[in-house]
Each structure stands twice: as C-alpha cells, then as structure tokens.
Amino acid sequence: MKMAGFNVELQALTVPLPIWRAQVTADDWRAAASAVREGGGRLLALWGSASEAGQTVSVAYAMPEGMIWLELPVQGSAASYPDLLPFFATAARLQRAVADLSGLLAAGSQDTRPWLAHGAWPLDYLPLGHGVDVAPIFPDAALIDYPFVRVEGDGVHEIAVGPVHAGVIEPGHFRFSVVGEKVLRLEQRLGYTHKGIEQRMTQLPPLQAHRLAGRVSGDSTVAYAWAYCMALEAATGCTITPRAAHLRALLLERERVANHLGDLGALGNDAAFAFGLAQFSRLREDWLRLSKDVFGHRLLMDCVQPGGVASDLDALRIERLRQQCDAIEREVQTLHTVYDEHAGLQDRFMTTGCVAPALAAQLGLTGLAGRASAQARDLRCDQPWPPYAQLQVKMATHNNGDVAARVSVRFDEVFESLRLIRAMLTDLPIGAVQQSVTLPEQPSQGAGWVEGWRGEVFVALALDGASHQHRIRRCHLHDPSWQNWPVLEHAVIGNIVPDFPLINKSFNLSYSGHDL
User: Fold this and answer.
1) Are strands 308-309 and 304-305 parallel, antiparallel or unpaired?
2) Angstrom distances, CA of residue 276 to CA of 265, 341, 398, 418, 485
C-alpha cells in the first residue's frame, strides 16, 4: 500500500481488518504524521519498546482505508523522536507516558511533566526500559509537587477533588479553577495505580496472556480479549471459524448493552431521577445474570480465547438469549419515552457538557462520545470484520455533542445491539468454536483492533521465536479513554461544578484502561 505524501512501502498484516506496518526513519515519521492529518486520519496509539537490539517508538494511525503501524528505531541514552503534538493534540499525554515507561522523549515537546511516574519508583528506573541506561528524565520536584496550570484573576479559586474518591471508584485527581460555581478550567491527573500490566504481559505465555488483557478494564473485557486474540492469531497465522467469530461478536454486543444499561441508569440518578437508576439497574442485573448462566461469568471474562471462544451455545441457551432481547427491548423503549418526555431530566441533559463537532475533530474524540459530536466513526461500519461485514450495522450518531446527545446515542446503540444479537442467534453458522494456535518458530508481530462499547480498543503484539521460548517481547494495550479524557476537560468549561458528575458519567471513561 502507498499513502499520498508518504513514500514508504507498507506491508499488510494477516488480520481481519486492513492493517499495514512499516519501519521508518525520523524524516518518514514526520512525513507520515503530516500525511495522516492531511488525509483525514487520526492518532490511535503511541508506545515505546526496548530490547537487547535497542529502543523503538511505535505509532498507530487510524485512516479511512484502515490502520497504519509505524516503527522508528532510536539510539542513545538521551534517545528522542520527533514530536507529534504539532500534528495531533491527543499526542501530549501519550508522549508523556512513553517517557515515563520507556525513557523515550519527544524532541521539542513543551510539556515534559511526568504522567504515570508519581514517585512510586526510582527516578532512574524505567518499567519498560529492560535495562536501558538513561539519565533521570524528571527532577525530584516534579514527582513531589506536580505543577498544575494555575488560573488567576478576581474571584478565581481552586477546588481539588481526589485522587481518593467516595464509593467504589479508581483514583484520579481533578483540579477545578472556578468563579463562584462556573468552571473556568479543569485539569486532570490520572495514572495513580500503575498496575504494571504491560510489563507483566512479557512474563506470561502468549496462549494465556488473553486473561490479563481481558482485565485491563473490566467493563471492556470482551473487547480487550478479542483485540489481544486477534493480534495473537495474526502473529501465528490462525484463522478462527465463522461460528467462533459470530459468538465473539455476540459477546461483544452483550457487553455493549450491559454498559449502556448501567450508564443510562446512572445518568438518570445524577440528574436526580432515581426512578431511572432503579429501572435500568434492574434490567442490567437481569442481563448480567443470564450472562452468568449461559457463558459462565457476569462480565463475560475469559469467554474469548486464542483460536475462538470458551464455550458453544445449544438450542435452549439460544432461545433464552433471544427471549431476553425481546423483553429488554420492550422495557428500554418504554424508558426511552420516559426519559425523552421528562422535562426536568431534559433540562439537565440538554446543552450540558457540550463538545462541538469541530472541537471533537480537533481533539480526536472517539467512540460513542465522538459519535454524539458528529464524528461518524465505528469500526463495525467503517472496517467491518467478520461477522460484522454481513450484519450491516447501523451507526448511531448525533450532532449536538451534549449530555442529551450522548444519552441518545446510548439508547440507539442498545436497540441496534439487540437487533444484532438476534440476527446472530438466528443465523449462527455450524462448525467448531475453537481452532488450535501454534506459536511460530520465528519472531512475529500482530495487531488487534476492535470497536468496544466505549470506543476503539487496540493491541499491538510482538512475539519472540522458539529460541527465546516463544515469549511476548512487547504487548501494548490501548484504551479509547486516552483520547477522550482530555476532551472531558473542555466539555466542563462554562458549566457549573454540580454538573461535573453528570458530564463525567455521560462520557464514563476508564481510569483502569488509562493506567497500564
């Protein structure tokens, strides 16, 4: 494949979606970033790697034609690579995380504050450096007193929230600059738990690592497990059966419905409409209980496995799933009418937390939040992989970009997922649900790209060959929350402080997926 304005030959990966890969020079790196931006592409992921052979920084771009994965070898103890921030706003935090984990710096970047380094490890330690000898990147003061951006003026004061929150929630710090109750600026700091998942992935056998991938963000376990398995199957040359592909998609749509039901209830509750929380919580609980009965786990963990899925469906289970779709659809339709006609609820939803389409495009807003701001992108429609290619998914979009729009997209996606589940249950192909996966003798690479309920989940995988016990050399797992957390900071501006929980829930971004 050739891309306009970029002359490097791209090699196609053996994967259900169109993905191309190439190794580039620093000049190619810049040229590619410019060509992607001019061609309507987006920055999908950025990560660093280190091995005995040296250091590499990698980038994944989402293009209308598919995905492009580029690798840039870098050398030296002060290794750097060209800054992507002039081309993509979402690069800022990704580059800071790469510096924290791998020691690779974006040359010329203006924001060099640590992102994941909260003082929990020594200054000269790089979790993904693998013995690379580098000088300390950040001064001691940066780890003790994080320099939040200050807003000054008459009547301006700060409200600090977190990182410890009430209830069951992961840590994150939110620094509000306000006048009265009106928000002038919000700045986030995340990454407090740093679980070391990407380092741990290199210590697991490739055929077992899908279980850890499925726990990066528990509400997206199917999306992560499928993306990892897709990458592994690409690296090993394994092709799953049509029945296994249908069952994976069925699991993914059940995951989507479960999360939308939970969020619709929570959004009602944040707008003082407790009836909505009670009803949607009941529906979600019924949904999760049937998932446990049919698939063995409420959240569907470990159901997607290398080579296929963990279990098959018989006629009785198929009928139970179909009947539940019909019952849930009737109740959600009734609740949809209630939400639309409740004046108090709509008063809280409409014009609150607005992200204009132009801003969403500039900041790279993705997933359901992006579709609510006129960013009409959904891998199930744009790059349909089996079985979505034959299901003709109808994309849910909205132009207003406020809480009401994000609620509307959730309702539409619930109805479409229920339709897809019924269609897959009706036309479930005959055949096996599991294929054997044989690890290759030589080093290999693969990628997985899946439209989870929150947005695009991406996994890049590099395997060593038999001479290194078939170990995972590098596995990068990317959550769409990386793109969307910065947009939330803009969505809150101009709103009142009490509306932040409502706006925050309308995005419902992942702390855990943002904190590897």
Assistant:
1) antiparallel
2) 5, 13, 22, 20, 26
**Which of 12, 80, 96 lies closest to 46 in space, CA to CA?**
96
Q: Which domains does the chain have, with CATH numbers?
A: 11-144 (3.30.460.80), 195-237+443-448+457-478 (no CATH), 239-435 (1.10.645.10)
Report d(CA 396, CA 416) in Å as an integer: 8
Take residue 29 and report the two structure tokens written for it: 């790196």
Tokens matching residue 376 = 């009409």
Helix residue ranges per DSSP H, 145-220: 197-201, 210-213
Express the helix, strand and coil content of the chain in percent, nearest 5 each: 40, 20, 40
Dihedrals phi, psi of 389, to nearest 5 degrees: -60, -30
SS3 453: coil
Tokens (6 digits) for 512 = 């855990």
Q: Are 74 and 104 in contact (CB under 8 A)?
A: yes
Instruction: Report phi then psi at 191, rounded to 5.
Output: 80, 25
Distance CA(266)–CA(273), nearest Å, equals 9
What is the tens place of the pLDDT at every residue in 6-60?
778 888 988 899 999 999 999 999 999 999 999 999 999 999 998 777 899 999 9
How many CB atoms within 10 Å of residue 183? 22
Query: What residue ranges in 128-221 does DSSP mark as E strands?
Result: 156-161, 173-179, 182-189
Query: What digits encode the pLDDT tens for the residues 268-285?
Result: 999 999 999 999 999 999
Token duo for residue 152: 């000054």
* The amino acid at 471: R
260-265-267-270 Cα dihedral, nearest 10 degrees:
-150
- Look at residues 461, 456, 493 and name the one whose alpha carbon lies nearest to residue 475: 461
**Is the four-CA dihedral 486, 487, 491, 494 of positive or negative sign?**
positive
Q: State which H helix or E strand residue 347 sits in.
A: helix 343-349
* Residue pointed to by tokens 């740093």: 194
**Per-residue pLDDT tens digits for 67-123:** 999 999 997 656 789 999 999 999 999 999 999 998 899 998 888 888 988 887 877
Helices (runs of H) and strands (runs of E) counted in the chain: 16, 15
Task: Name the E strands within 349-452.
Answer: 444-451
Q: How far apart are CA 204 and CA 207, in angstroms?
A: 8
Mutual orientation of helices 403-426 and 242-270 as an angle, nearest 10°? 150
Task: Please choose, from the candidates 230, 226, 228, 246, the residue with its C-alpha nearest in 3D space to the C-alpha of residue 238.
Answer: 230
3-state secondary structure of 138: coil
Q: Which two tokens stand for residue 471?
A: 């170990």
Can you give the pLDDT at residue 130? Answer: 67
What pLDDT score does 78 carry?
62
pTM of the model: 0.95
Helix (H) or strand (E) holding 82: strand 80-82
Tokens of 65: 């034609």
Alpha-carbon distance of 175 to 158, in angstroms, equals: 7
156, with CB counted inside 10 A (0-12, 13-18, 19+), is: middle
* Residues contacting residue 152 through CB under 8 Å, at least 6 positions apart: none
